[in-house]
Amino acid sequence: MTELEQLTQLCERLGAPRLQAATMAAQLAKRATQLAAERGLTREAAMARLLEAVVKGRAGEAPASPAGPPA
User: Fold this and answer.
1) What contacts 28, CB < 8 A, 6 or more positions away?
2) How far apart are alpha carbons 42 and 54 in whole angstroms?
3) Are 25 and 8 spatial neighbours (Cβ–Cβ below 8 Å)?
4) Burial class of residue 14, CB neighbours in 10 A (0-12, 13-18, 19+)
């Protein structure tokens, strides 16, 4: 099973319809690559941050700010 398939399944389990889940999965994969390049993270660390934000958002929680606490 590919990463994209796994992400799609995760998004579906979080309540997204199949087509939307596939779109979300593609966006997550692309953003993880971008974050890794922008912030000097491994792609795995970037993906972990994104998935944490997705799960927290689904639960109605505010994710931790990547730039630290608000001023």
Assistant:
1) 7, 11, 47, 50, 51, 54
2) 19
3) yes
4) middle
CB 32 within 8 A of CB 46: yes
The pLDDT of residue 61: 87
Q: Where are the beta strands (DSSP E) in the chain?
A: none
d(CA 62, CA 36): 22
Report d(CA 40, CA 43) in Å as an integer: 9
| C-alpha to C-alpha distance for 44 and 59, rounded to whole angstroms | 22
Summarize pLDDT for 19-37 with one digit per residue, the tens: 999 999 999 999 999 999 9
Is residue 59 within a helix (H) or strand (E), and if so which, with residue range? none
* Alpha-carbon separation of residue 11 from 44, 65, 67, 68 (angstroms): 18, 22, 26, 27
